[in-house]
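Batch manifest, entry 17 of 40.
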Amino acid sequence: MNSIINTQKMKAQVLEQFGSLLAVKEIDKPEPKDHEVLVKVKASGLNPLDLKIKNGQAAHAEAILPMILGVDMSGIIEKTGKDIHNFKVGDEVFGLVGGVSDLQGTLAEYIAVDADLLALKPKNISFREAAATPLIFITAWEAVVDHINIQKDQTILIHGGNGGVGHVAIQIANAKEAKVYTTISSPSSEIIKKYNVVAIDYNHSSVEEYVTKYTDGEGFDAVLDTVGGTVLENSFKAVKRYSGHVASILGWGTHSLAPLSFRNATYSGVFALYPLLSGKNRKHFGEILSQASQLFAEGKLKIELHDEHYNLMQANEAYEVLENKKSTGKMVIDID
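Output type: C-alpha cells
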C-alpha cells in the first residue's frame, strides 16, 4: 500500500524552553501572506546571537516560546503571495528573515518571508555560503558604510577582524579602498592573511603605542568595535580628533564618553535586528544584501565557513560546537 505524503506539513527544530535542547517537530507548513514569499530552505546560518537566544540571554531579541531558531537562510522560492514584483517562483534567495520575536526562524524546511528582506543569491556561491552571510554582512555594512561612510584612503581600525562581522567589515573596507587595520590576538591568523589589512597584536601593543605607530599619534579616521566592553573604551582613545567616528555593534554596557568627547569625535551604535522587530525599514536589508551579491560576483567577498557539515536533525550538535567555541568559521546547517 502506498503511503500518502502530507505536503501541508514540514519538519522543524523547535525550542520549547530556554536552555533546553531543540526538538524535531512536524508542524504546519506556512502560507505566504501579501508581500511574502514561501521559501524552501536549503541552508540555515548559525550565529552567536542564535545561541544567546536559545539560552535565554538575548532579551533584545524579544523571543516568544515555543519558537524556531535561526535568523539567516538561503533557499528557493516555491510560492508567492500578492504584491510580489521583484521575485518569482524558482528564484534562489538569501536573507536575514526571522528567529526573533514571534517570527518563525530558519531551522525548518520552509519559511514564509517578507520579500523586502531578501536578495537574489549570487550564482557564483553555494547555498551554504549565502546562508552564512546575511546577519554579519548587514551588520558590517551598516557600520562601515551607513554609519562611518568610509572613503578611499581613509584609515579604519576594525577590532576583532578574524570574527564573523570583523572579517566581512575588512572586506567591505577593502572594497571601498580604505587603509584597513585590525586588532586581534593572533596576527598570524590564516583568515587575516587573506586580506589587505595590517594586523595589530593587542596583547603586545597598547592603544597609545599602535595609534602612534600607525597614525603618527593622530588617530584613525574610523574605528569599528565588534567586541564591546573595554574594547569600545579603547576605540574612543584610538579615533582621530574632530573628524573621527566610532561605531560599535556591542555598545550595550555603561561607558564613559569622556575620551571621545575630549577628542571631539562622534559615535554611533549598530542594532541590525531593529527592522525585524519593528517591521520598519526592512527594504534596506534587501538593498544591503544586493550589495553583498555584487561583491560576491566581483570576487571581493568571501565568507569563512566551518569545515564540518550538519543537517537539520543534527542542529543540537552544531549548537554544541558553537557553544564550546570549537568552530573555525561561520557554521551552517544544511536543511535540504
